[in-house]
Amino acid sequence: MNLSVAHLGPPGTYAEAAALAYVNWLTRETGQQSLLCPYPSIAQTIKAAAQAQAHLAVVPMENSVEGSVTMTMDTLWQLSGLQIQQALVMPISHALLSKATKIGDIRTVYSHPQALAQCQGWLEKFMPSVQLVPMNATTEALHYLEEDYKAAAIASSRAAQLYNLPILACPINDYPDNYTRFWVLSLEPSPGGSHTSLAFSVPANVPGALVKPLQLFASRGMNLSRIESRPTKRSLGDYLFFIDIEADARQPSVQSAITELTKYTETLKIFGSYSVVSV
Asked: How many other CB atoms are there within 10 angstroms of residue 209's CB atom?
């Protein structure tokens, strides 16, 4: 039976490229065949795996320029049961796609908010007067370009090939070292690895509410490679925290820290331990 792998669509997105890289690796390692399943949003992609509509979901988690993808974080917190199978780090190179004869003719640029933000400096320099329109995916608006010669989209060079669209400029991202980390999610137990991700809320917003949980890891010599807050959406100033630990949750020291962590947290979710690979 083929594995179904959910990702943000339409075809040609960076999430699809990450999903392709993962399933190609899976085929080489295990011989398992996979079927890619595009979804119209990151939230729906994650829910497809959480509701067993797909075996796996590949979603963007963090960009080296623009930071975390909040939709991924918020949706993962709201759902239960999903575990990280692997993290994929992929270089991102943005291109300007359009049927306009020259950049000066373009009046509107479409793309995902992350892509627009990653190209903000270039757009301000070369296209300061264009209207920027955020979309659910980098490829969502490509069909507009067939008829509107004053429109453009920021997407990948692969998307230009898939949709037979000209590239007017590439790369246009502000920083050459532009990487996105994707998570492979599943209802299956996590396999273990070099990193562990978790999230928690604290009982009350009082002094020391965050310090005590963090000291549990510092006292055991564990490095935190990421810590980020997100609003709980219950009240202003009420936050939950996402943490990445450079250790495997199966290690006794990590298990001890997590056990003690429950004393200081209101809700604690362990998303599993996994390896990080470059694709």
From this structure: 17
**Local confidence pLDDT in tens for the 279 residues of the chain:** 789 999 999 999 999 999 999 999 989 988 889 999 999 999 999 999 999 999 999 999 999 999 999 999 999 999 999 999 999 999 999 999 999 999 999 999 999 999 999 999 999 999 999 999 999 999 999 999 999 999 999 999 999 999 999 999 999 999 999 999 999 999 999 999 999 999 999 887 677 778 888 899 989 999 999 999 999 888 887 889 999 999 999 999 999 999 999 998 999 999 999 999 998
What domains, with CATH codes, occur in the chain? 3-91+178-186 (3.40.190.10), 95-169 (3.40.190.10), 195-278 (3.30.70.260)
Q: Is beta strand 108-111 parallel, antiparallel or unpaired with respect to 276-278?
A: unpaired
Is the distance from CB of 154 to CB of 105 less than 8 angstroms?
A: no
Task: Give pTM, 2 decimals.
Answer: 0.93
